[in-house]
Automatic annotation (TrEMBL):
InterPro entries: SGNH_hydro, SGNH_hydro_sf. It comes from Ideonella livida. This is SGNH/GDSL hydrolase family protein. Pfam families: Lipase_GDSL_2. One of its GO terms (molecular function) is hydrolase activity, acting on ester bonds. SUPFAM superfamilies: SGNH hydrolase. It comes from the Bacteria. Signal peptide: none annotated.
Length: 211
């Protein structure tokens, strides 16, 4: 059996837009992906390491533990051997308390790739390949999280293209989630259940070529 690690934020954790609830595993995209890979005859186990509000390398001034780079190497060590790491982060870098642009988020993702590749895994275990997924663009922030993401729809512009170019340089696989899903109109940021399903199926097709 091959092991895949999904490292992400609330878009992968499966928060239900407009609530603080969480979709069941088989309805959020990592679970949909796992099920689709099983259907394709691949014996895989998908482990999720996702937390609401996670940034790439930047601090959340209000909540501790949201810097995605902190402890990442040890998470890779703990989960190894891994057949693949799926990395989908960047959305929270555009929260209103940050001045970041797409360039800053892409630079943060590059730092995460470096942390994964230099993790202190056991001798003889493989350095896992990495699939970088560009999150779908932020829509018009709405509801309770609107102040938190005010202006995010402008700051995130250009992220997929930057990540794609970066992945070509770093030798990572790349997928643009915005080509198959859109953020929920309920809050402008997260994914509705049908979008999780669509993304999970699309990523299964990509992942089966990488493992």
């Amino acid at each position: 059996m091959q092991h895949i690690l999904v490292y992400g934020d609330s878009l992968s954790w499966g928060i239900v837009p407009g609530t603080r609830q969480r979709l069941p595993f088989d309805q959020r995209w990592p679970g949909v992906m796992e099920g689709a890979l099983h259907t394709l005859g691949r014996r895989v186990r998908v482990a999720e390491d996702c937390i609401n509000g996670r940034r790439t390398v930047y601090d959340d001034p209000y909540k501790p533990g949201r810097r995605g780079i902190d402890g990442l190497a040890q998470r890779i060590e703990a989960q190894s051997p891994l057949a693949l790491v799926v990395l989908m982060l960047g959305t929270n870098d555009f929260q209103s308390m940050h001045p970041h642009t797409a360039w800053h988020a892409a630079a943060g993702v590059a730092a995460l790739v470096g942390a994964i590749r230099t993790a202190p895994i056991e001798p003889g275990m493989p350095v896992p390949p990495i699939l970088v997924v560009a999150p779908p663009p932020i829509g018009t922030p709405a509801g309770a999280i609107a102040p938190k993401f005010a202006g995010g729809q402008h700051k995130c512009v250009g992220l997929p293209a930057l990540l794609q170019a970066q992945c070509a340089e770093l030798g990572c696989a790349f997928f643009d989630a915005g080509q198959v899903v859109s953020s929920s109109p309920t809050d402008g940021v997260h994914l509705d259940a049908p979008e999780h399903h669509r993304l999970g199926l699309a990523l299964a097709e990509v992942v089966r070529t990488l493992i």
